[in-house]
UniProtKB/TrEMBL annotation:
Residues 321-359 are annotated as: Disordered. Keywords: Exonuclease, Hydrolase, Ligase, Nuclease. NCBIfam families: Xnuc_lig_assoc. Its EC number is 3.1.-.-. GO terms for molecular function: exonuclease activity; ligase activity; RNA endonuclease activity. Gene3D superfamilies: Ribonuclease Z/Hydroxyacylglutathione hydrolase-like (3.60.15.10). This is Ligase-associated DNA damage response exonuclease. PANTHER family: BLL1145 PROTEIN (PTHR11203:SF49), CLEAVAGE AND POLYADENYLATION SPECIFICITY FACTOR FAMILY MEMBER (PTHR11203).
Length: 359
């Protein structure tokens, strides 16, 4: 019996015939990387292959690595197996990875969303026989409000806070969510400030995309300067001494998890905006239909529930364990989360607290 084109092992998703891994979570010789989030692009591989717009992102995060950039739809062969990268719509540089050999076609999505956010290259469906999909929000309860409405609500929230003499602190992870928010914030309301981790990443991305002007929050930034402005910060900054100079402030989080009533309360956030860089339930189903696939492999998220539903709909669906974490995994690394958070004498205590990922 011919083995599957892609298999799951203790290092990642492996193409035996090409001897290459897709988004491996342990060091390997050759890795094709879907996007720059830390749970998908890890340090230690000998050679990285990714979309060219993701190259500066993973270099910023991983240092000087051996990496090759590819164009969208560019076919490249490894040991007779054809590969190509196609827009995933998740964040800037995010790709679906198409794998073809002897007429058999697989697509690995990495992370993806169908809504055009105006920042990432929009998702494009890719025909295949087998489709590997995330299920981060694979429950019928998840149904996203269009981005235009969410951003209108965020800008209205900021405007009201400014009128009340408060600083608006908006949490979103430093790669992807922060730039999506920044792209659609209304700079006519006031000045936009950024935490160091977000400013550093945005500087990497500005050559690819026009964003509103931002001002980095530093030790010299005063409360009076910040009042009425909006501060973009990573979730790891919440509850740290870094926020002291923003008093009086109001906090908000932009995340798909804000759809859960208790999520905002558990995280001690004043306001929650439901804005995700992943598909909702209907988006996942639409994506699967548009591939024309017969087999679906469900990874990271509500895999059991989602795969059971797909089987009921006539698909050959199953689950596989991975070390991808979806939106929960897109928190900041220790190096980023401590960057310019607090004075040096307070960093040791702050680091210990932020080492623990959000649940």
């Amino acid at each position: 019996m011919t083995p599957p084109l892609l298999i799951f092992n203790d290092k990642g998703i492996y193409c035996t015939r090409a001897d290459v891994y897709l988004d491996p979570w342990r060091p390997v010789e050759k890795a094709i990387i879907s996007h720059g989030h830390a749970d998908h692009s890890r340090w230690g591989h000998k050679h990285y292959i990714t979309h060219h717009s993701n190259v500066p992102i993973i270099k910023h995060r991983l240092g000087e690595i051996n990496v090759t950039g590819k164009e969208w739809n560019e076919t490249f062969s490894i040991n007779g197996v054809k590969f190509s990268l196609h827009p995933a719509g998740h964040i800037i540089g995010s790709s679906q990875i198409r794998v073809e050999c002897k007429g058999e076609i697989w697509v690995f999505t990495g992370d993806y969303k169908l809504e055009d956010d105006g920042v990432a290259v929009p998702y494009e469906p890719v025909k295949c026989h087998s489709f590997i999909t995330e299920c981060t929000f694979g429950l019928p309860a998840f149904k996203w409000t269009p981005q235009a409405q969410v951003m209108a609500d965020i800008n209205a929230w900021w405007q009201q806070n400014k009128q009340d003499g408060r600083t608006s602190v908006l949490f979103g992870y430093s790669l992807g969510k922060a730039q999506r928010l920044l792209k659609h914030l209304d700079p006519n309301i006031g000045k936009i400030y950024t935490h160091g981790a977000i400013e550093n990443m945005t500087e990497v991305l500005r050559p690819m995309m026009e964003f509103p002007d931002t001002t980095r929050v530093t030790r010299e930034t005063t409360k009076d300067e910040l009042k009425g402005g909006l501060v973009l910060a990573p979730p790891s900054a919440h509850g740290t001494p870094w926020l002291r100079k923003m008093v009086p402030y109001v906090t908000a989080s932009a995340s798909g998890w804000m759809a859960f009533r208790g999520a905002r309360r558990r995280r001690a956030i004043d306001k929650g905006f439901v804005l995700s860089d992943h598909c909702d339930w209907q988006g996942l189903l639409q994506a699967i239909r548009e591939t024309g696939c017969e087999k679906v492999i469900c990874t990271h998220g509500y895999t059991d529930i989602f795969s059971k539903y797909l089987c009921e709909q006539g698909y050959d669906a199953r689950t596989e364990e991975t070390q991808y974490e979806g939106e929960m995994g897109e928190m900041e690394s220790k190096a980023e989360s401590t960057d310019e958070l607090v004075p040096d004498e307070e960093k040791a205590a702050a680091v210990g607290k932020k080492d623990k990922p959000e649940k």
